[in-house]
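Can you please make up a protein's amino acid sequence together with its fold in token form to help me picture the idea?
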Amino acid sequence: MAKIIGGITTSHIPAIGIAMDRGLEDTPYWKDFFAGYPPIREWLGEQKPDIAIVFYNDHGLEMFLDKKPTFAIGCAPSYDNADEGWGIATIPPVTGETELSWHIVNELIEHDFDPTVCQDIKVDHGLTVPLSLMYPGHNYQHMKVIPVCINCERHPMPKPSRCYALGQAIGKAVESFDSDQKVVVFGTGGLSHQLDGERAGIINADFDEECMNKLVSDPEALTRYSNDELVEIAGAQGVELNMWLAMRGCMLGKVREVHRNYVAPISNTGAGTQLLLNE
């Protein structure tokens, strides 16, 4: 059967991609942030996973406020990146995966999840920045990617508990897939941040550290928060924790943390990254 070997959490702020394009990784502002990624890249190079399931949220490129699915999953052979409206350079297409993605869709529907199935979808920085971080120079096209999009922008949004349950259902689907492929799961976005309004710039580093601790040892404790509580504690975009919870839900074995980094503020964000092994 296919096996989920580990999970990775990472910020996906667009400024990261710009910093990489401009060669700013070693500048004082960015150095501590980028220092968190070489151990993860080394692990990926050693393990050579075949497939990445990436939980992300679309920021208006493909799913705007007029059409906002709660959960969506890509089943396409490839995914193009596109300008999101502010002149960010597009990058090479992402290689899709079709057999496992359709298996996941069928299993989700069989177990009472009803995702929007996307056979043609463009992906934004929520997905491409994490891939670029893990494979500098846009050297990610060897990796087959299954994008799973979670609504973190428009109310009503799925609850943390529901996102965690989605991850559990996807983890079970992967384990039932007749293949010897290795799968890694990305939880992207977060942690605490708010980009607009009176509370713009809020960062709750104590809560972020609590989330990173509990993601390892007690993820169900995080599922007891409501989205309103997450907004109050961690800012309007703090609900992106839901992508991390979906990632964690996929890992059904004993989970062990082998790497962590946290830097704040980075582009008005509490930026954390973790490497979790699914044993």
